[in-house]
Amino acid sequence: MTTASPCEPLLAALHALLGERMSTSEAMRAHHGHDESCHADALPDAVVWPHSTAEVSAIACLCSQHGVPMVPYGAGSSVEGHTLAIHGGICIDLSQMNRIVAIHEADLTATVEAGVTRMQLNRELRHSGLFFPIDPGADATLGGMSATRASGTNAVRYGTMRENVLALTAVLASGEVVHTGTRARKSSAGYDLTRLLVGSEGTLAIITEVTVRLYGMPDAMSAAVVNFDSVTGAVDTVIQSIQCGIPLARAEMLDALTMQAVNRHSRTDYPERPTLFLEFHGTADSVAEQAAMVGELAAANGGGGFAWATRDEERNKLWQARHNAYFAGLQLQPGSRCVATDVCVPISRLSECIEATYADLRHEGMQAPLFGHVGDGNFHLMLLVQPGDEAAMAQAKAVNHRLIQRAQGMEGTCTGEHGIGIGKQPYLAAEAGTHGIAMMRAIKLALDPAQLLNPGKIFSY
Amino acid sequence: MTTASPCEPLLAALHALLGERMSTSEAMRAHHGHDESCHADALPDAVVWPHSTAEVSAIACLCSQHGVPMVPYGAGSSVEGHTLAIHGGICIDLSQMNRIVAIHEADLTATVEAGVTRMQLNRELRHSGLFFPIDPGADATLGGMSATRASGTNAVRYGTMRENVLALTAVLASGEVVHTGTRARKSSAGYDLTRLLVGSEGTLAIITEVTVRLYGMPDAMSAAVVNFDSVTGAVDTVIQSIQCGIPLARAEMLDALTMQAVNRHSRTDYPERPTLFLEFHGTADSVAEQAAMVGELAAANGGGGFAWATRDEERNKLWQARHNAYFAGLQLQPGSRCVATDVCVPISRLSECIEATYADLRHEGMQAPLFGHVGDGNFHLMLLVQPGDEAAMAQAKAVNHRLIQRAQGMEGTCTGEHGIGIGKQPYLAAEAGTHGIAMMRAIKLALDPAQLLNPGKIFSY
């Protein structure tokens, strides 16, 4: 694969194209070569800030002509090293492509540039009665969320980016622009290029525009916090609710250590026990009915102390506390980095998977906050490591290794929502199998023969 | 591309492998070389009935060694010519691979062999309290439904095969077996090979096993038939319901001519006016609430004469009448073949698209039943043509041509659920664009370089 440093003619051409919107400064390169993951920094040779699909196309043409890697960059909130320029090259920062292109309220769709963040889109929608539900913890860009097949707390009800991206505009390595999908709600027209690019982590194309589905704001929304004697009680309450067909809008579990971290970080006073954060969407009557049914299941599983939030302000505070769980967890060991695990298993195996993981932690003499989107079978363990502590890092990676093997042994996946990036490549190979990986490589080579798009991510060459 | 007839050594090898489960008889070849579409018959050179993924793999190895095309075959219910062996070769009939591999009730998943039909799966589930919602009119196989990205009447609530296939086992042209996806509800693990194969129409791999999502049978289900002064009133009732966030489970519109055909075929006595067939799923209270809200919208749009069906038997009769609409339509002109249109547009444009289509029919002096999944923006026009009437066929194709252009001009698609097959290839080219088609071709050539898998479907070479 090509790892040539950008030659002066390329940098000169990019400067001619973009002027001040191209930088080779140490500070900018360092900012873009560092991320939320525990992977080592890896700086690009230059950073560019295009303003249009046409400019991205021109940049891709130039990089291709010079055989230089391209690394798409959104909000930089990846926890799997997606934006690290491990083979150097040009970081294409799409954050200035942040226009709302069109909101079609009657069709429940929005088309936005790749740099629009989920919160920006929802601010834009606030008077429309519509909302966009997908919410990874960070205020990620819709381009980045598409590229990593992100999800979040609402996925149990509304699906992930896989289900909610209708169409994309993307730039291929050659600079050619493709428009995948249409604004129709469904289609059987040829290969599903949209779903192929969703989750491709910038290795097949650079996403520049995204059309997503929107949803009507429900008549009634009600959130609740309920605590349990055990993690199993909390998890089983959610699983049984799903098996009963109760359309939970959100069902998040935070264990006692996570609740302790949340209380410290968000200055809340929740009981520091295994806790569910729940939300119900519907009409006033159906929300009351759903809540009553879940309340009964919770009581039967040792849950108690329901605290309700129905006003928007209370609900937002509650979910902000949940969204901050990652940052709260980091503060348990100030200065630490986090090995974030991300397995997802069939829901019937979730309690068993979590219990076996706690047993492993006890055996290792470790503590780690555990929380997750239990309605999807997806949970995260925050394995905190002080920089430079090689032994602790090795121990954390070994716990993650065993956790992934456990999940894959239960017909689950090594990553529910974070993506493969750099660190999960061996696990993808195990999960997809020899022929599955060979199919992925064949597709990669067919669409990016010079391997210039985000090289070294998903698989190495 | 290869169009060599199967040589004797291949036929001998297939016979040695499969014995009586290989046939070159004229009758079997004719049966498999004919379909529901208006395309000309095209017979395979032989038909095989494998019983396992291993046998499909062995067949693929043999076909590849001899450079002979392979055409996967399920229930033969395609209306776009997918199963016609237009380049000859071996028809791989998967209907005897009809075992239910596993039903995981607690996880709401089922794994079945490709030849299992949707009704067979639902019969198997009848005591479990679960069901599989995707229902194209015919009793198609789950392999075929996956390969064409099928949907049906429940898609407005439960999605299409795109949203409901979790994992696949498939055989590549080389005979290699891939397992895509896992039983986890979501994943970010590498390229979405599952979604790439869903809708690939047998051109990338032969699907041999399918893992799908199941749903809990709702506490209450209630269906209703309501008739309207105008098609627009019926369509607008559905669109407004969706825009209000009412979770319709089914919302089918049948125009007056279709209702006439249904009455004749199913011996019903519905008013022969534009009609909605609706269904509501939920708890008893929420179903009543949904029905009341839709009732108000219907009344405001000129709807009346609500007839309710709440008992299973009544509901089944109603939906059977709807599922038979295609066959009922054919009987309006006995002996005719049907050019079935399948556009899908953003829902805000649906009334306009239908009205313009009626205007075109009036201008042509034609009548054609029109019905569809209006909640998705998808509708079908049955353009009936007597065999051999070239002028009528040309006129029908011209109407479909203008309809597709109209839909694509409204940011819609040429096919909502039938697929591209043989007839819609020029429209796919227009919809996907030069670079989109080039991407699809590159993927095809990367995965099936000798172009032996269902050649001539989706695109010609």
Automatic annotation (TrEMBL), chains A, B:
Its EC number is 1.1.2.4. It holds the Pfam family FAD-oxidase_C. The keyword Membrane does not apply. Keywords: FAD, Flavoprotein, Oxidoreductase, Transit peptide. It comes from the Bacteria. Its cofactor is FAD. SUPFAM superfamilies: FAD-binding/transporter-associated domain-like (SSF56176), FAD-linked oxidases, C-terminal domain (SSF55103). PROSITE patterns: FAD_PCMH (PS51387). Residues 40-217 form the FAD-binding PCMH-type domain. Belongs to the FAD-binding oxidoreductase/transferase type 4 family. This is D-lactate dehydrogenase (cytochrome).
